[in-house]
What we know:
With 546 residues, this protein is mostly helical. Helix content is 64%, strand content 1%.
Amino acid sequence: xxxxxxxxxxxxxxxxxxxxxxxxxxxxxxxxxxxxxxxxxxxxxxxxxxxxxxxxxxxxxxxxxxxxxxxxxxxxxxxxxxxxxxxxxxxxxxxxxxxxxxxxxxxxxxxxxxxxxxxxxxxxxxxxxxxxxxxxxxxxxxxxxxxxxxxxxxxxxxxxxxxxxxxxxxxxxxxxxxxxxxxxxxxxxxxxxxxxxxxxxxxxxxxxxxxxxxxxxxxxxxxxxxxxxxxxxxxxxxxxxxxxxxxxxxxxxxxxxxxxxxxxxxxxxxxxxxxxxxxxxxxxxxxxxxxxxxxxxxxxxxxxxxxxxxxxxxxxxxxxxxxxxxxxxxxxxxxxxxxxxxxxxxxxxxxxxxxxxxxxxxxxxxxxxxxxxxxxxxxxxxxxxxxxxxxxxxxxxxxxxxxxxxxxxxxxxxxxxxxxxxxxxxxxxxxxxxxxxxxxxxxxxxxxxxxxxxxxxxxxxxxxxxxxxxxxxxxxxxxxxxxxxxxxxxxxxxxxxxxxxxxxxxxxxxxxxxxxxxxxxxxxxxxxxxxxxxxxxxxxxxxxxx
Length: 546
């Protein structure tokens, strides 16, 4: 029986390796790299373009301000740089880095403080509208930069692998689910501008991503007989383009409703530069507040833990062995560096690994690192073309609202998917799960509506810290899940720790015959091999596990 099981596992690994056209260190022809790299760009586009649309009203940016296009360009530009770093000196897996909604929730809590509320009638706004939103952006930048230092330390020190025994499915599940649930107001506000357009967007998203996802379309110029699942790979992009086109036809025929007109923001395109290279401190020197940094920590921790799972999935699909501890440490540390870069450049967001692009690897069967590096260069190029970012600002708000309704629902489900490891027949687990989620909706809602002035400790700084933390639903869920799951008695199997640890089991030795050389650092690895002290450095390939 045991022999059959071993043979079955070996056959699965063998089939997986044979099914991949290009493995992690293979280099496809340049034209295939270009095409597949552009495909990765399109795959990450849908999730990335949604982020600035959440930020604009929080930052108090006017609708016709070309700064909106500059922020979009900055996000893509920084994502390209960080993807190059991650694939070269980070975990070295073919994994795309980009903006994340994990940082949106603490950003909303920070900018909902009274001192950052938008008052378009104030003298500050009337005197200098640009400085009015830039000082809010600088506050977000500072919070992301400083909190990301913690991620750098956790990554490069190897602490994450030690922390994983306390961060359980009942800790990370509710906290990630709250990212989606806490944003329902944002989705509702955008979709309610025109429910007909928003509803059409939702229907198309469901149609493309679920019902038509397996339909393959032949690509004639590829040398191989190659078919792409266009609908399954680009449901967000195709939905936006189709609804955008419908709104464009409406604009030509009538155009009386500004909410669904594609020309309502034409001044943004006219005022935007054709070429503009994003640069550090472009909005000014970031400012740092304790309440902002502490609130952003929840986003940093959740992002890091999610990325570990992405590394294992990416390695499997790209034909690489499971990532060893040094690759994971280097990957998390590099993501922290990426967040610092994003903060310095002023994207208004951090960075994380993109699960959508990992799925694209599974569909195309191309896990080449070089392809993702091509995608990174494409992101940088489009990040310099500001007009390109400005064009997407003409997408009507109800379309964005419809996309949010679907995407935020998926984010919620991704968080809840961590519950597959626990025993859902256990009343202990049901209590922790239900209470963590429900109370994380109740408390931040009360803080937002009535509780802002209720926290009085005698220290203004401490008041703001507590207010931001209690207004961040993700933090509340993570704190409750962490405390309750680690203090209420329960077996490891009941808590899901057995399966959880197996999923995140480190592969420091190549037990299945696969070489770990794909995780070695380029150019300097031979030099490092001759230095005995490198075995004690957690992020170097020579490291031996704790």
